[in-house]
Amino acid sequence: MSAACCRLAFREWFGLTPAAAEILGVLYAAKGAAVAPDALARMAGVSPRAVGFHLFSVRQALDCEGLDHEPGQGYRLSEIGLDECRAALRTLAEELRAAG
Length: 100
What we know:
Elements: H1 3-14, H2 18-29, H3 37-44, H4 51-61, E1 67-70, E2 74-77, H5 79-99
Antiparallel strand pairs: 1-2
Helix pairs in contact: 1-2, 1-5, 2-3, 2-4
């Protein structure tokens, strides 16, 4: 699935703003690896000062253990967070297939 489709799915499924969905998309693409805040801002196309605000939205949308902070390294999706994202993508794909 393309990155753009993932972002749209995350916006729809988790009720995120476009910027928060971009952040989640970057973290999902990192497959559990930590992403430094400045790199996260650059890859998601948001202001470095806004990263914390958007991460707060992502934290609220995911299970409480879905997002980890690795001191000195950045943020990463835990296995729980990755599973939530995979389930969202799978469910939305099934709904689209069923719709024809």
